[in-house]
Amino acid sequence: MRLFLFAIGGTGSRVLKSLLMLSAAGVRPLDENGKPVKDLEIVPVIIDPHKANEDLKRTEALLNDYRDIRRRLYGNDPNAEGFFANRIVTLREIMSNTSVTLGDTFIFNLGAVENAKFREFIGYDTMNEANQALTSLLFANYQLENKMNIGFVGSPNIGSVALNEVKDSNEVKAFSNVFRQGDRIFFISSIFGGTGAAGFPIMVKNIRQAANLEGIENRDALSRAPIGGLTVLPYFTLEGNKHDQRIATSDFIVKTQSALYYYKNTLTGANDSNVNSIYYLGDQVRSKPYLYDPGEHGQRNNAHLIELIGALAPLDFAGVPDSKLTDQDGYPLPTTAYEYALAKDELSINFLSLGRRTRQLIYEPMSKFHLLFLFLTTGFKNIIGQGFTEDSPKIKSDFLVSQFYRTLVDQFMLGYAQWLTEMNDNMRSVALFKPGEVDMAHAIEGVGVKKRLLGHYKVDNDVLKAEMNKLSKNNPKYSDHSVEYKLLDLFNQAAHNVFVERYENIN
Amino acid sequence: MKQITYLIAGIVVTVIFFILSCSDGFNIYEQMYFNQGYNDKMFNLDMYPVIAAITILIAWGGAAIYYYAINSVKFDRWYHWLAVMAVVIVLAPVACYVYNDTVFANNGLAYVGESIQFEMQTVLFAAVLYIVASFSMRWWSSNCRHTPLPQ
Known about the structure:
The complex is a heterodimer. Chain A is α/β, with parallel strands linked by helices.
C-alpha cells in the first residue's frame, strides 16, 4: 500500500518533520491486530509556494537524508524493522516510464504560482472595470500585491484561487499515474493560515472529481480513494507587529471558525464522504510567540508538541482497516472525526503525560533512537576496532568518514537534536528526554532505571556495547549485509534488550 | 570449525609440553636449564610434572579468567590482555618456586640460587602457554574475542 502524504504549508512541513523523526525511530503504522502494516510506502509531497520557508527547507533536507540513510540500510525493501523502518520515496522514484517529466524531489513544483504577484496571476490588469471592482471587494490591496513566492501570507482566499492550478500540474499527473486501488491519501494542513486551509479542500475536491480532470489516469481509483486529513487548529502565537498586520494571532480563531464551517459543508459533514477520516488537533495553551514573519525572512518556527502528535495521524490512518474506510462496493464511507487528548494536562510533557496507546507506539522506539543518538555522538568512535566492530562485516575507522555516517550523524542526528531542543523550549514544553543529558540511565524524562540487588542498573555505552558484542557473536545474519545495516540493526536489538531489562516499564 | 581447530591445537600443544616436561629422554626443562645435582633431584622427586601442571593451570586459568570472568568491554584492549599476561608470568614462577622450595625443604635440601634460575624458564613457558590458551579459548568470549588481535 502507498500512502500519499500531501503536506501543505508551513505546518505541513513541520508535521512531516516530526513524522520523519518518528519513522527514524522505527515507529510504524499498526494494523488492527497490532502488526506493522505490510508493504507500506510513504510518498510525501510538500505543497508550499514559499520555497524560502526555512521549515520547508529543513524538512526537505531531512527527507533527503532519511531517504539516503534508509536506502543504504534496506535498499527498496518496504518491510524493514528497526530504525528508519518506514520506506519514504518521492513520486519520481515510483513512477514507471511515462511521458510526465518530474524532478526527484519531495516538493511540488508550483512554478506558475510562485513567480507571480497575485494580481498578475489572476490577470487583474486585463479585467474590465466591474470585475476589478468585484475583485477589490474580495481581496485586499496587499493581497493583490502579494508576490506568491512567500506563500499566501495567511490568506486562504488567495490560496484557494492559486492552488486550484495544481490539478493541471505534472505532479498531479504523475500521482494519478502511480495511484492504485488500495492506496491511500492523507493531507496535513493547518486551518488558520493561508496555504493549508485553502489547499486541503481544493486538493480533495480535485481528487474526488478526478473523472472531470483531463490528462490523468486511474480516475476511478482516485475518486474512490480513502482520504484522510490532519487539520491543525490554532496552536501557536506570533509576536505582535505594529506596522504589518497581514497575519495576526487574533485572527486565527475567526479564520478557523470560517474554515470549519466551510469544511463541514464540503468535506466532513455527517453524510459527507469526501474525507473518510479527519483528525482535529489544536491546543488552547499557545506556543511561545514565534517571530512575526509573513514570509520575507524565511519563516522558521520551533518544533512543537502538536506537530509530534499530528505526525501520529497519518500513521494511524494507514493502519485503519479498509472496511472502516470503504463500503463493500469500494466507495468511501462518511467521515469519521478523531480528536486527541493528553493523559495529563501538563505544561511540561514527558512520556507519562501521553495516553497509553501513544506511549505503546512511541515510547520504546523513540527512547531507543535517543540512545542511538547518544551512543553515536558520545562513544562510538572509541570502540571501533573492538568487539562487534571486528566481527564480519568489519566496521573500520574509515566508516566514520563515510557518506552514510556523516549523513546520519552530522546531518540527521543534528536535525534530531535541534528538533528535540526546539520542542523542549516551546510551550507546552516537550521534555521527553533531558536536554544535554548524556547519562543514558537518566536521559528519559520521568523514567528511571530499575533497582537491582545493590543500587540501580547502569545504562551507558559500555552496557550497549557489551549487548551488541553478545548479539554479534557468531551471528551469520550480517554476513550478507552492509556494515551500516549491521550497526543499526545490532544497536536496535541491543537497545531493546537493555530497555526491557533495565528501564522502568511505563506502558 | 576454525574455533574448534584452534582449541584442539592449543590443547595438543599443551599436552605435548606436559609430556616433554615429564620425559626422561628429552626433557624440555633440562634442555633449557641443566645443573646435574639440581635436575637430578627435581627428576627423582617427580617435581617436573607438578611444575608443568602449575604452569599450565596458571596460564590457562589466567586466560580463562580474562576471557570469561573479566570479559568486560572496559578491559578489551590489547594492553589489558598484556596486563593479565604479566600477572601470569609473575605468578607462575613464584608458585613454582614456592612448590620447589617446599619440596626441597621437606627433603632437607636447599637450592635457592638454582631454583631462581630454573624458574626463569617458567616465565617463558607461562608466557607461551598463556598465548596458546588465549588463542584456543578466546573465540567464545562475548567481549574480548578480538583481543589481543582481531579474529
